Hints:
Blueprint: E1 2-5, H1 7-14, H2 18-25, H3 29-36, H4 45-55, H5 59-62, E2 63-66
Antiparallel strand pairs: 1-2
Amino acid sequence: MAIVVDIDRRLAELGMSVGEFAKAVGISPANVAVLKNGRAKAVRFSTLDAICRALDCQPGDVLRRVPDETGEGRL
């Protein structure tokens, strides 16, 4: 199972740059890249809240679960 972060789509919709987004959220552009590239191991709820405030969205608008092909993660 993988969690995919779809920040790029929302940034494009808003015409917001990565730098503007990073400043609004209070994280570095390098950490934005970690999120966008799927290398983040965790996200604090306070950071997720800041992301949603900056992008005027809900968590499900920027996060989605993609099951892997082996069926891992099924109950």
